[in-house]
Amino acid sequence: MLDSSGGFAVGGTVIVNPENETQTLSCDHGYMEYFIPWTPRKTSLVMWHSSGTQTFQNRFDGGEGYKDMFLRRDYPVYLWEGPRVGRANWPCEPETFTPWYADQGNFVAWNFGPFWKQWWPDTQFPKHDAEAWNQITRNRYPEYDTYDNVVLQAQTAAVGADSGMVGSDIVYLTNSAAGLRAQLTVTLSNSSNIRAIVAYESIGCVFPEGTTDIPPVNNTLGGYFGPMFVPLEDFKKLARLSAVQFVWGDHRGADGAGNALTQFLPVTRYCAELINKYGGNAEVLMLGDDAGLKGSTHIAFADMDNHKVAGLLDDLLSKNDLDGYVDW
User: Fold this and answer.
1) What average pLDDT does the segment 115-121 reach?
2) For residues 278 and 58, what is the distance between their CA atoms, to the nearest angstrom?
3) Residues near 273 by Cβ (< 8 Å), separated by ≥ 6?
């Protein structure tokens, strides 16, 4: 049973028409859709995918996704779309979209197989379901990945976290480029409301200023996927979280985007090492080697075995005392 559901804008600014000062535009805000259980736990799960919230709403075949799984577990669930993307696509600056032919690249980048329509034999994507492929490739929206947009989205998310509108015990569940954004959000936050980050295949990490020995990345994806640098004292905010978990699947191709994504694994290992150096609780979890879950895609929480992936999240929340109920 739900107590309530709805949505609200977060942050944003107002700009004045330079040619007519009586006209304004409210823009660059984020959008939060929320679902609050009747008997809620204290921890709010903010589900953040930089290019499509649908991946948290359903399994690839249309089955139950993380949103409903964790509502059934009594966690308040928030679906977040940052400024200029999704339902928050009312920018304060001109944005230009040029169609680019991404389907084939997405297939490899999302770790469905090493090359276009060459599926991994044990893939957790329903490879014989043509409609599943149609749905997943259409649920993505433009991210407008630039350095300034990454910072804007993190700044706005920090406003939301600090406001208390999302609760006082926030866990960010992120995928891909949203992992970098969530890390940056923590460093920009002025409150202790953020408690943990679980980053599924984090493309990019935050590091202290002056860090020079970061594992190299052939970053054809662009500098907006990190590394990003912050003052050491801000980086230490990541060490004050209850947990930071970087989650990775198995199988990577020798070529293409799959290889580029794989290069970020050692980057997350080094980021976790630095967080722990300053007293944090960070780890890298390999779904195959550590948890025995084979054939995971880039979006493991939408895989056919997502109930098993959710069980690992249950363990992390319980281990770090993030599974308690609201004391009325």
Assistant:
1) 94
2) 37
3) 282
Q: Does the N-terminal peptide bond of residue 208 adopt cis geometry, omega within 30 degrees of 0?
A: no
**Smallest Cα–Cα separation from 48: which of 157, 197, 174, 144?**
174
Topology adopted by domain 2-319: Rossmann fold (3.40.50)
pLDDT for residue 199 is more than 60: yes
What is the pTM assigned to this prediction?
Answer: 0.96
DSSP string, 93-142: S---------HHHHHHHTTS-SBTTB--TT-SS-TT-HHHHHHHHHS---
* DSSP states of 61-92: TS-B-HHHHHHHTT--EEEEE-TTSGGG---S
Q: How far apart are CA 27 and CA 5, in angstroms?
A: 24
| Residue extents of the structural domains in the chain | 2-319
Report d(CA 246, CA 198) in Å as an integer: 6
**Planar angle of CA 270, 154, 214, nearest 5 degrees:** 20
End-to-end CA distance of the chain: 17
Alpha helices per DSSP H over 33-102: 54-57, 66-72
Give dist(CA 174, CA 198) in Å, integer: 6
Residue among 63, 51, 48, 65 nearest 131 (CA): 63
CA 127 to mean position of chain CA atoms: 24
Q: What per-residue confidence (pLDDT) applies to 262? A: 79
Which region among 10-14, 106-110, 274-278, 294-298 has the lowest average model confidence (pLDDT)? 106-110
Helix, strand, or coil (residue 145)? coil
CB-CB contact of 119 with 125 (8 Å): yes
Query: Do 124 and 271 meet the contact criterion of CB atoms below 8 Å apart?
Result: no
Contact 228, 206 (CB under 8 A): yes
| SS3 state at 147 | helix
Q: Which residue matches tokens 């979006």?
A: 299
267-315, pLDDT tens digit by residue?
999 999 999 999 999 999 999 999 999 999 999 999 999 999 999 999 9
